[in-house]
Amino acid sequence: MHGDSKHGDPKHGDSKHGDSSDRECANRLRIPARLFILPALLLILLGGSGCVTVRSIPDGVELAAPIVELEVERVDGVLAVEAMIDGHGPYRLIIDTGASVLTLSPRVIDEVGLETRRLPWYLNGAMESQWGWCRSGVVSELRLGDRARIPTMRFVEHEIPSEADGLLGNGILEFCTLKIGPEHRRVWLASEASAPGPGDVPLRLADGVPTVEFTVGEETLRATLDTGCAGTLILPGEWEDRLPLAEGGSAVLSRSLHGPRTLTLRRLQSSVEVGDLVIERPFLSFGGGPMLLGLPLLRGHAVEVDMQSRVLRIGEAVSLPLQRR
Question: What burial class does residue 58 get, using C-beta atoms within 10 Å of its C-beta: 0-12 exposed, 13-18 middle, 19+ buried?
Answer without folding.
Answer: buried
